[in-house]
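## tool: complex_structure
## caller: assistant
## args:
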Amino acid sequence: MSVIADVVIAALLLLGAGFALIGSWGLVRLPSTMERLHGPTKATTLGLGALLLASVAYFQTRLGIWTAHELLISLFLFITAPISANMIAKVHLHRVRIGAISEPDSIAGPPPRPDGEGDWATFEAPRRDNPASTANS
Amino acid sequence: MNRLLPHPALSAMLLIVWLLMANSITVGGIVLGGVFALVLPKFTQPFWPDRPRMRFGRAFLGYLGIVLLDIIVANFQVAWLILFRRNGDLRARWLVVPIDLTTPEAITMLAGTISLTPGTVSSDVSADGRYLLVHALDVDDAEAEIARIKTRYETRLQRVFA
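## result:
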């Protein structure tokens, strides 16, 4: 029993560490800001998930207690990872528009404008009466 | 009911998170968590006046399952791209996704989902709230990818926020 548990915990730890390493490697080797964002927001999510599962399994098999903090950590990660990616992307949009980019061009090129007369929300003050607005209440 | 609990789901969430933080279920913990669950939504109600109507039944659980599955698949796909695809062969591009969802909460959930799932990061929403700007790491057919996002996530979210 405990041998099986040890093998499972070790496998989870290796899987988690492997994905964290791949995510960091992606951050280093992908060509520009927008591509680099994909490494840390995805490849590390599963890595951390596996590490947290290993933690739950370790405390359960070794000390006989159930811990719930890992659930909370993954919950907070799922909430914060898209937001930080979104913030970095918005800063990137502004830097592209004012021509302040001092790095190799992104593969995707400059971002398109939305159809219609409008622009992306980060370039405009919030308007009333639209779903993206926080000014209408 | 609504005046006592302006955000019932938020109250339930606060109680659950409090008990998880305490890491034990005791009477004292439930009472203290219950007080927080009652008081905090009441005091923060002015910041969040229009509560979206959400259904936490089958539609929500199905959505959660699909997203968790896609997150696992996404991790392997992105790891594969990072390890074995040369930079010159990456077909990264911007997608402009038209959205039919109308509440800010629903659009936020869609954007968060897009950021967590296969090879896409949502970057911004248009000022009129009708388009999402999404960056895709490796996409062959932009139209097909947009259609996939809409059918896989948006239609399910529309059922949750009905």
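## assistant note: The mean pLDDT of chain A is 79. The radius of gyration of chain A is 21 Å. Handing back to user.
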